[in-house]
Amino acid sequence: MSYWGGMRWSSAWLFIPLIIVSTYSAAISELDYFGNYPLVASSQPWVSMITVAPLLAGWGAWDAGRLRAWLDLHSSGRGYRARAIQRALAPAMFAGAALVTATVSFVAGSPGSLLEWSVYATATITMLAFAAAGIAIGLTAPRIAACPVAVAVAYAAMALPVIDPAQWPGQVTLTGIVAPCCSSNEQINPQTLVAACLVALLITAGATLSITLLSGRTARSITLATSFALSAVLAAVLGVTLGERAQVEARSTSLSCQIQSGLKICVWPENASHLSQVHYKINTAINATKSLGVDLPRHWSQRPERGAAYFVWSDESSGEEHSYALGIDIAHRLGCRHPDDELITASYIARQMGVSPSALIARNPDMSATIVQFDDLSSTGRRATFSRQIAGCSP
C-alpha cells in the first residue's frame, strides 16, 4: 500500500473534519483571553487538546482495529508489520496533527518567540504520542472496546490536569501547562514543556514498541501497559520535582522604555506602540494625585521593579477604563488593598483625572453617594478627604 493509498484507506474523511471543528471551536472560545500578549495567544488555544487528543487516539484505535486482522494473517516479520502500519496509518495521523497546528495558527497567529515555538513543538509531540497510543490500543484491545478505551484514556490524561493545574499532573501535561498561562508579568516555565515532551516521548516509544512487536496480543498488551505505567511514574517524579504551580515564572522579556519630560515609562513590547497614550495617562494620573496631596515616582513600569511604580495596561480598554485602572494601581501603591479601600481610593483618583461621576457610578452603583459628595467638595476639601482615606486604609 502506498502512502497515498493509506490516506484514502484511512478514516480521515470522518476524523479530520471532527478534529478541525473541535480545534477551531475550542480555540475561538479562548479568544477573549488572548489580550495582546503573544504568548497567551499562542498557548491558550492548545486547551483544545482536551478534545483533539481523544479524537486522535480514537482515530488511531479505530483504523488500527480495521488493520489488525489483516496484519495478523499476513505479517511475516517485524519490518513488514512496521512498514504496513507506517503506510496505512502514519500519513493520516501526521496530516491530522499538521491540520490541528494550522488551525491553531489561523486563530492565534504564527508563533514568534522561541518559547511560543516550544509550545507548538510540545503540542505536536503530544498529539503524535496520543495517535501512537491509540494505534497501539487498537492493535491490542478487542476491536469493540479499543476506540472507547483510547478516547477515555486520552481524555482523562488531558482533562484531569486542567481541573487543578496546581497539582503534579498539571506540571507535565500540555493542557495543565497552558491553562493557567499567563498574566502580563508571567511566562510559561520551559522546564515544564521539557517535562511534558519527555513523558510524551516515553508514551510514543512504548506504543511504537508494542505496535511493532512480533509476539501475540498478550505480549503487546504487557508492553503497552508497562509503557503507560512508566510514563505515569516519570510524570509523577517530574511533576513533584518541579513543584506546585511551576507552569509559570517571572517574564524575562525586555521592556520598551521612553523618557519624556523627566518621566520614564517602561512597557512590555506588545504595548510599545501605545507609549504616547500611556505617557499621557500616567502624567495625568501623577498630576491628579499630586493635586490631592500625594507625590508619585517619575518611573513607571509594567514589570514590578524596585523604585518604579507598577501599572497594568490593556490596549482593549477605553480612556476612562485606563484612568480607573491606574487609580487601582495607585491605590495599591498607597497601601489601599482592601476591596472597600481600593474602590473608594481608585474612584477619587479617577474622578480627579477627569472621569465623569456618571461613569464611576455606572461602574460601582453603591458608590454613588460617596462620589457625589466628593464631587461637591472644593480642592482643599478633596485633599483633606483623600488624605483621611489614605490614612484609614486597612493594611
Summed up, what is this model?
67% of the residues lie in helices and 5% in strands. The protein has helices at 3-9, 12-29, 38-43, 49-74, 78-88, 90-108, 114-138, 143-163, 168-171, 174-178, 190-212, 217-242, 275-291, 319-333, 339-352, 357-363, 368-375, 379-391; strands at residues 186-188, 248-250, 256-260, 263-267, 299-301, 309-310.
- Please report the number of helical segments: 18
What's the multimeric state?
single chain
The helix/strand order is HHHHHHHHHHEHHEEEHEEHHHHH
Mean pLDDT: 88
Strand order of the largest sheet: 3-4-5-6
Description of the structure:
67% of the residues lie in helices and 5% in strands. The protein is mostly helical. The N and C termini lie far apart (73 Å). The mean pLDDT is 88.
List the helices and strands and how they pair.
Elements: H1 3-9, H2 12-29, H3 38-43, H4 49-74, H5 78-88, H6 90-108, H7 114-138, H8 143-163, H9 168-171, H10 174-178, E1 186-188, H11 190-212, H12 217-242, E2 248-250, E3 256-260, E4 263-267, H13 275-291, E5 299-301, E6 309-310, H14 319-333, H15 339-352, H16 357-363, H17 368-375, H18 379-391
Parallel strand pairs: 4-5, 5-6
Antiparallel strand pairs: 1-2, 3-4
Helix pairs in contact: 2-4, 2-6, 4-6, 4-7, 4-8, 6-7, 7-8, 7-11, 11-12, 14-15, 15-17
Descriptive terms for the model:
single chain, 395 residues, 4-stranded mixed beta sheet, two-stranded antiparallel sheet, 5% strand
